[in-house]
Automatic annotation (TrEMBL):
PANTHER family: ABC TRANSPORTER PERMEASE PROTEIN-RELATED, PROTEIN TRIGALACTOSYLDIACYLGLYCEROL 1, CHLOROPLASTIC. It is found in: Membrane. It comes from Komarekiella delphini-convector SJRDD-AB1. This is MlaE family lipid ABC transporter permease subunit. One of its GO terms (cellular component) is ATP-binding cassette (ABC) transporter complex. It is a multi-pass membrane protein.
C-alpha cells in the first residue's frame, strides 16, 4: 500500500512540475531567449525523422476505418456517405491523436531520456555554472520545435489516411475514388483544417513539455532515466486524450442541460 501511495504522490508532483514548466516556457518565450540552432536541430527530430511511422500508421488506420465504416453503410445503401463518415472521424479526431501518440513515443520519450541523463550526470548543474538557463537551452527549443512540426505531421497523416481510405474503398467495396473524395469534401469544412492545425500545435506542446518535465525531475541513475521516459509517454497519452475531449466539446459540441 505504501509504494502505491508513493507512486500517486510522485505523479501529482510531476503534474504540478509540468504545469510550472509550461508557465516558465511561456515566460522565457516572451522574453525572446531562444537558441535558433537548437530549434532547427529538434525540428529535424520531430519532423523528418518521425515521418515514416506517422505515414505508415495513418495509412493503415485510414484503411481499417474505411473497411469498418463502409461495411455498415453499404448495407444500408449509403455508399455516398462513406467518405463523409471517414472525414468526420478520421480527419477531426484520429489523425491528430495518432500523430501525437506516435511522437509521444518517439520524440517525447527521447526528450525525457536525454534530459534525464543530463540531470543524473550533473550536466544541468554545469549549465547553471556556465550561467546558461536550462529552460532556454534545453526546454524552449524542444517545445518550439514540436509546436511547429506537429501541425505539419498531422496534415501529412491526414492526407495519408485519406489515401488509405480511398484505396480500401475502391479495392474492397468498389467505391470510386471520385465518389469517396467528393463525400469527404461535402462533409468537411474549411474550418476543420484550422482545427486540425490547432490540435497539432497543442498536442505538440503537450509532448514536449511532458517529456522535458519528466527529464528535469529525474533522480537516481540509469534505471530512473528509463522509468522517466516510460512515464513521460504514458502521461503524455493521458493528457492528449483529456485535452482532446475538452477541445471536442469546445469546438464541435454545444450540449444543452
Amino acid at each position: 500500500m505504501q509504494p502505491q501511495k508513493k507512486f500517486e504522490q510522485s505523479c501529482i508532483v510531476r503534474c504540478f512540475a509540468a504545469i510550472l514548466l509550461c508557465g516558465q516556457v511561456w515566460l522565457h518565450l516572451l522574453q525572446g531567449k531562444t537558441y535558433y540552432r537548437k530549434i532547427l536541430q529538434h525540428m529535424v527530430t520531430a519532423g523528418p525523422t518521425s515521418i515514416s511511422p506517422v505515414l505508415l500508421v495513418s495509412g493503415f488506420a485510414g484503411m481499417i476505418f474505411t473497411i469498418q465504416t463502409a461495411r455498415e453503410l453499404v448495407r444500408f445503401g449509403a455508399v455516398n456517405a462513406v467518405g463523409g463518415a471517414f472525414a468526420l472521424a478520421f480527419c477531426r479526431e484520429l489523425a491528430p491523436i495518432l500523430t501525437a501518440s506516435i511522437l509521444a513515443g518517439q520524440v517525447g520519450s527521447a526528450y525525457a531520456a536525454e534530459i534525464g541523463a543530463m540531470r543524473v550526470t550533473e550536466q544541468i548543474d554545469a549549465l547553471y555554472m556556465l550561467k546558461t538557463d536550462p529552460i532556454d537551452y534545453l526546454v524552449l527549443p524542444r517545445v518550439i520545435a514540436c509546436c511547429l512540426m506537429m501541425p505539419f505531421m498531422t496534415v501529412f497523416a491526414l492526407f495519408m489516411g485519406i489515401i488509405g481510405g480511398v484505396f480500401a474503398g475502391s479495392q474492397f467495396y468498389q467505391i470510386l475514388p471520385e465518389t469517396f473524395l467528393e463525400s469527404v469534401r461535402n462533409f468537411l469544412e474549411p474550418s476543420d483544417l484550422f482545427i486540425v492545425l490547432l490540435k497539432g500545435f497543442i498536442f505538440g506542446a503537450l509532448v514536449a513539455i511532458n517529456g522535458c518535465s519528466w527529464g528535469l525531475t529525474t533522480k537516481g541513475g540509469a534505471k530512473e532515466v528509463g522509468e522517466s521516459a516510460t512515464k513521460a509517454v504514458v502521461t503524455t497519452w493521458i493528457s492528449i486524450f483529456i485535452m482532446d475531449f475538452f477541445l471536442s466539446l469546445l469546438l464541435f459540441e454545444h450540449p444543452t442541460f
